[in-house]
Amino acid sequence: MTVVADSKRRVVLPVAQPGDRFDLRVAEDGTVVLAKLGRVPSQPAQVRVEQRNGFSVGVSDQPINDDALREALAEFP
């Protein structure tokens, strides 16, 4: 099977399902090994709104992944 990366460096795996996780290893010679990991059940975050210094602030019960946030914000102009 051959897959091709698009302009945003994404690759579509026909056998993958939404939510599947993979471990990616790249060897010194450029060989890429992709191994499927077990699923992690996702739960929606519980967010409460608090007043802080005159502003409404959402406080989550789960930590925020800085890398995922940076990646999501990169799509905005």
Can you describe what's shown?
- This protein has one helix spanning 66-74, and strands at residues 21-26, 32-37, 47-52, 55-60.
- The chain is mainly beta and 77 residues long.
Brief summary:
This protein has a two-stranded antiparallel ribbon. A two-stranded antiparallel ribbon has the order 3-4. It contains one helix and four strands, in the order E-E-E-E-H.
Layout of secondary structure:
Blueprint: E1 21-26, E2 32-37, E3 47-52, E4 55-60, H1 66-74
Instruction: Give average pLDDT, whole number.
Output: 89
Q: If strands are numbered along the chain, what order do they take across the biggest sheet? A: 1-2
Task: Please count the helical segments.
Answer: 1
Work out the helicity level. 10-25%
Alpha-beta classification: mainly beta
Count all strands and give the number. Answer: 4
From N to C, what is the helix and strand string?
EEEEH
Strand content: 25-35%
Low-confidence stretches: none
Q: Which of globular, elongated, flat, extended, rod-shaped describes the shape?
A: elongated
Distance between the termini: 36 Å
| Main sheet characteristics | 2 strands, antiparallel
Rg measurement, Å: 18 Å
